[in-house]
Amino acid sequence: MITVTYYLEVVSSWCHWAEPAWAELKRRYAGRAKFGWKIAQMPESAYPISKSQCEWFYRRSGSIMRAPYLLNSDWFDAEMRQMLAPNLVTEAARDFGVDDDRVRLAIANAAVRGGKKVGRWDVAATVAAKAAKLNKTKLLTRAKSKAIADRVRKSSAEFDALQVTQRPTFLLENSIGDRAVFSGVVRVEPLAAAMDALLEDEAAYVSWKAHFGDPPAK
């Protein structure tokens, strides 16, 4: 079975555009692949420095994706240059049994579609608690804990170790050690092609073992 890891930044516009591909991969390869996401926190320097700059980026990405809507830049907050709250609240929801896409998508959509200032702890926690029916106070306390910060630092370091810079990044791995990394890719076609190749190679090894067994010791 293939393992697919999606490295993301919750409020990233390119991660927003990648969500249809992520959903299609999970639908198409259900039962044949294991899917999971990890936070790859962006450094402060990677965020827009003004609302007008953010809007420029949104016009660029929206036109490239042929989107019928323009993303909402009202979430931009000059006082919150690095978006810690959306990522940490999303990670904290795992500790309450929410390991799917509900919380991160709710926060992301609240930001880039609804324009809500999710960089503020209270806003991010309110959105997340409503989406997953969680206790907001407990979620917020957990999100601000050292344990959650450490986990996000660890997953972000894993992302950095891949020597890529773009979110989204998809890491595809099969049981025979093959790996494929797609950084900045937001369309399903190249991801699916790689998935098919990794599955085919994995199946070939199963066939080989059925015919020849384990390799000789000498």
Characterise the protein shown here.
With 218 residues, this protein is of the alpha+beta class. The protein has one domain (2-212): Glutaredoxin (3-Layer(aba) Sandwich), CATH 3.40.30. The protein is 51% helix and 11% strand. The chain contains 8 helices and 4 strands. A 4-stranded mixed sheet has the order 2-1-3-4. Strand 3 and strand 4 (179-183) form a beta hairpin. The longest helix is centred in the last third of the chain and has 25 residues, at 188-212. The radius of gyration is 19 Å and the shape is globular. The mean pLDDT is 95.
Question: How is the topology of this model organized?
Answer:
Blueprint: E1 2-8, H1 13-28, E2 33-39, H2 51-64, H3 84-93, H4 102-112, H5 121-132, H6 136-143, H7 146-161, E3 169-173, E4 179-183, H8 188-212
Parallel strand pairs: 1-2
Antiparallel strand pairs: 1-3, 3-4
Helix pairs in contact: 1-8, 3-4, 3-5, 3-6, 3-7, 4-5, 5-6
User: Under the CATH scheme, which class?
Assistant: Alpha Beta
Question: CATH superfamily assignment?
Answer: Glutaredoxin
Tell me the series of helices and strands, N- to C-terminal.
Answer: EHEHHHHHHEEH
Distance between the termini: 29 Å
- Overall mean pLDDT stands at 95
- Class derived from helix and strand content: alpha+beta
**CATH architecture descriptor text:** 3-Layer(aba) Sandwich
Q: What's the multimeric state? A: single chain
Taking Cα atoms only, what radius of gyration do you get, to the nearest Å? 19 Å
Number of domains: 1
Work out the helicity level.
40-55%
What is the global morphology?
Answer: globular
Question: Could you tell me the strand content as a percent range?
Answer: 5-15%
